[in-house]
Amino acid sequence: MLLTSKTFCILPWIHFFIEPSSEVKLCCFSSEGLTGETGSPLGLKNMSLRHIWNSVAMKDIRRRMVAGERIGACAKCDRESDLGQTPARAYYNNLWLENDREHEEWELRVAKSIENNLEVTGLPVYYDLRPGNRCNLKCRMCNADYSCRIREDALHSKWAHQSPDIEGSRFPEGSKWYEADDIFLNEIMENIQDTRVFYISGGEPLINPFTLKLIDLLIELKVARKIVLHFSSNLTIYPEDVFAKLKNFESVLFYISVDGMGPVNEYIRYPAKWFNVERNMKEISQNPGISCIITPTVQNYNVLSITDLIDFAGSLNMRCNLNTLFAPHYLSVRAMPGPARRLAIDRLLEYLEKSSLVKKFPDLAASIHNVVMELKQDTQKPYLDTIAEFIMFTNDLDRSRNQSFKDTLPELYNFIIKDGHTWSTEENIMLTTEKLSSE
Ligand code: SF4
Ligand code: SF4
């Protein structure tokens, strides 16, 4: 019955996502957070996890999903469905309602909630936590919510500023949910006997005190053996002591955030050093207790060369799943001249036809198709609308990092010049911002 609803997704019945600000969303792909009855954002700062879980907002979302209605927060999945791409909800529905060993329990959970005014009796069993913005990198497409290095960078933080804290008084002003022991122990750990998955991302989890505390606590409580851990890591570091503790868990999956080979990765993921990343990727590929998926964020900076990274992942016997970037819009694959997009499409289609990795890893094929579909969309207008912004952003970051777009990515640079654009070096956002504020 549920699968006849095109908008049904299992996540609002099992999953809980918390931003660094404590704002709660349906999942990491959700474009909007939950809101309370007055329209203000819902988060642990103003409501307990238990209350948010069965709040009016959550029940309304569940009701609309069952009825086949579209939900603003799930626009990304709807858009991907409309484009013939494979949306994230298809992946989660498949994983939890077909392949999971307890899939019957999750089906029952949904059915019972429908009889009970969409209230879910059990608590979440799959947590996606963003415990702050401690990170050692300031990747071009990221923002200050997820990277303290960007927040501290006067220039980059002007392009990618931090979201305001949400209103609420459950913990003192200035303190954070991931530092509040009562939130952590009483609310997130309340359902620990039934919890199945913790996914830690947002910043770099391997240097985040919350991650280390969580790992120790799960081992101490003797529940680690039944917990699946997922991390999203840039793998610029490989702390042996943390990896030793991970052996205690049911399974561990690393989504490795690498965006290209050598100079391409160093350009996008500043100040990562390829030497370290490559060494750590080889090290983790030899770790029998850990599964890995390379998850590059596909953007205009790397789409022309992304197949090199897929091949490198394959040489380490790792899967690669491409994530298509949607924000910031000036880094999207749509923000490229037509001939560059056509070349990117040709390279990806040829790869789909010829690479043995595509047959070995079906998810890879689907994710390549998604990028191709994105490249084929209404492309001329987004490109013309954003090219000036793209040049200014790129110049700003190049200057402040002593990097060079022209030297690192000459192919895309030449496409832009041939398309009739002058690569201006005159202005940057600092000057623009100063001008605007003095007007
Ligand atoms: S439908 Fe998509 S965006 Fe919405 S909760 Fe599911 S996976 Fe997330
Ligand atoms: S590693 Fe991740 S969190 Fe850190 S800056 Fe890069 S994208 Fe952002």
UniProtKB/TrEMBL annotation:
<protein>
    <submittedName>
        <fullName>Twitch domain-containing radical SAM protein</fullName>
    </submittedName>
</protein>
<dbReference type="InterPro" id="IPR058240">
    <property type="entry name" value="rSAM_sf"/>
</dbReference>
<keyword id="KW-0949">S-adenosyl-L-methionine</keyword>
<keyword id="KW-0479">Metal-binding</keyword>
<dbReference type="InterPro" id="IPR013785">
    <property type="entry name" value="Aldolase_TIM"/>
</dbReference>
<keyword id="KW-0411">Iron-sulfur</keyword>
<feature type="domain" description="4Fe4S-binding SPASM">
    <location>
        <begin position="9"/>
        <end position="78"/>
    </location>
</feature>
<keyword id="KW-0408">Iron</keyword>
<dbReference type="InterPro" id="IPR007197">
    <property type="entry name" value="rSAM"/>
</dbReference>
<dbReference type="Pfam" id="PF04055">
    <property type="entry name" value="Radical_SAM"/>
</dbReference>
<dbReference type="InterPro" id="IPR023885">
    <property type="entry name" value="4Fe4S-binding_SPASM_dom"/>
</dbReference>
<dbReference type="InterPro" id="IPR050377">
    <property type="entry name" value="Radical_SAM_PqqE_MftC-like"/>
</dbReference>
<feature type="domain" description="Radical SAM core">
    <location>
        <begin position="131"/>
        <end position="312"/>
    </location>
</feature>
<dbReference type="Pfam" id="PF13186">
    <property type="entry name" value="SPASM"/>
</dbReference>
